[in-house]
Amino acid sequence: MAAKKERKKTVQELEAPVVNLNVNYDTVDTEPKKERPMGREYPKSRNKMPEKQLFEFAEYHPQDAERTGYSNYSYWKSVWANFVKNKAAVTMLCVFIVLFIFTFVAEWISPYKLKELQQNNNEIFLLPSSEHWFGTTQAGKDYWVITWYATRVSIGLAAMVAVGQIVVGTIIGLIWGYVRKLDRLFTEIYNLIDNIPTIIYMTLIALMVGQSVGIMAVAMIAFGWLGTARNVRNLVFMYRDREYNLASRCLGTRLFRILFKNIFPYLISVIVLRLTLAIPGTIAYETTLSYLGLISEEYSLGILLRNSRDYFLRFPHMLVFPAIIVSIITITFYLVGNAFSDACDPRNHV
């Protein structure tokens, strides 16, 4: 019975009259809403666009266009950024800078002055103490002042000789490698000098010309450029016939500009490495010449090492302090030179 009553109720609801809401369709917006296009506009809608919008020119600003292709890259800034990443090399560089500055300061903090040192037989071969920090020499002179002055002389001599060798070797190597007509001439000069031990040339110059520091520095430059020139010459052979150099020659570019604008930048890392390694090498060579008595300078690291050879067993401080300074200079320049050479290579720049 309950089911029959529910059926009658639903039938009555279906047969109920429809309610007329009296809607005025004139006031109702019957147009379909336009959906906002996503992404690219449909091609058919371009027909409805106004003509001015279709053919409107895009704005162009030359400064904005140049700024688009502008780069903040700087070669030397990138070199420094790569070098700073090597903490060991930076530390060694700071050690050398402090060492070099201290060669000028050491005399001022000492109670003894170099020009005032005189022979004192009562203070011969004194060991290091609070009065004489490095002890005394066989003449009774303060060894602290003498050692640091000798360090300054050796570093100055080594820097002058190293720079001279690199400049002369680089210029000769560039010309030697690029101008093929001069290859035979420079090769014969190289063989003539290289096949005879350099110490023989230095001995002859010292005996015939003089043993002053200036003369021996010029002699070391005159015979020390060979290795740099040979290395640069081999590298120039690799770059001289590349496309951009051939194009420069076809355009009539001068030889000087091709060498120093097109080729020289590729040699910077090698030149820097040889320069940094030439300084400790020159100090070691100066030590050898001083040990053999071919340099007449009163004080240098080489002369101190030469003078201490007869007293090392009884008075080791005569040899220990100059040897430590030479070792520090050699190690610092080796590490700094390798790190700076890697930083100068453009292939390591990001």
Q: What share of the residues does DSSP label as strand, in percent?
A: under 5%
What is the oligomeric state here? single chain
Q: Give the overall pLDDT as a whole number.
A: 80
How many DSSP E strands? 0
Write the layout of secondary structure elements.
Layout lengths: L1 H13 L36 H4 L7 H7 L6 H10 L2 H23 L33 H36 L4 H12 L3 H11 L4 H12 L1 H14 L3 H8 L4 H9 L4 H24 L9 H7 L9 H28 L6
Keywords:
mainly alpha; MetI-like fold; 62% helix; flat
Describe it for me?
With 350 residues, the protein is mainly α. It has one domain (76-348): MetI-like (MetI-like fold). Helix content is 62%, strand content 0%. It is built from 15 helices and no strands. The chain has helices at 2-14, 51-54, 62-68, 75-84, 87-109, 143-178, 183-194, 198-208, 213-224, 226-239, 243-250, 255-263, 268-291, 301-307, 317-344. Helix 4 packs across helix 15. 27% of the residues are buried. The model has no long low-confidence stretch (mean pLDDT 80).
